Amino acid sequence: MDKYNHWLAKLLGKLNRSTRYAVTIGQTAYYSVSKEEVEKSPSWIRHEDEHKRQYAREGVPKFLVKYFYYQIRYGYHMNPYEVGARQAERRV
C-alpha cells in the first residue's frame, strides 16, 4: 500500500531540493505529496510501479545493494534501474 505526504519522501525530497519526490521500498511507494496530486501524474505512478516490479524480480536486499552500487558507479541518470523506470513512464 502506497503512502502519501510521507515524512521519508519529504525528507529525501528536501535533500534533493524537490517538493515532489518519491521513493519505493519493496512494494510500497512513499510520496511527498497527496494521493490526489500523485494521481494527476500517471507517468510518476508508472515509474514507481516499475521499481516495485524490479524489487519483485530481485528481492529487497539484492535490489538495494545493486541500486546503490549503480548510483555510485553510474549516477542517477544512468542507473539501469532508473533507466528502466523512465522507460516505463512512457508506456501506455
Task: Describe the sheet with the most strands.
Answer: 2 strands, antiparallel
Helical percent range? 55-70%
- Determine the number of helices (DSSP H or I, runs of at least 4 residues): 5
Query: How many domains make up the coordinates?
Result: 1
- Strand-residue proportion: 5-15%
Shape: globular
Spans with pLDDT under 50 lasting ≥5 residues? none
Average the pLDDT over all residues and give the rounded result: 97
Q: Termini separation (Å)?
A: 22 Å
Count the E strands: 2
Radius of gyration: 13 Å
| SS-based class | mainly alpha
Side by side, the strands of the main sheet go 1-2
Q: Element order, helices and strands?
A: HEEHHHH
Question: What key phrases describe this protein's structure?
Answer:
single chain; 92 residues; mainly alpha; 5 helices; 2 strands; globular
How would you sum up this structure in a few lines?
This protein has five helices and two strands; from the N terminus they run H-E-E-H-H-H-H. It is mainly α and 92 residues long.
Describe this structure in words.
With 92 residues, the chain is mainly alpha-helical. The protein has one domain (7-89). The protein has 5 helices and 2 strands; from the N terminus they run αββαααα. Strands 1-2 form a two-stranded antiparallel ribbon. α3 (42-58) packs across α4 (60-74) and α3 (42-58) crosses α5. The radius of gyration is 13 Å and the shape is globular. The mean pLDDT is 97.
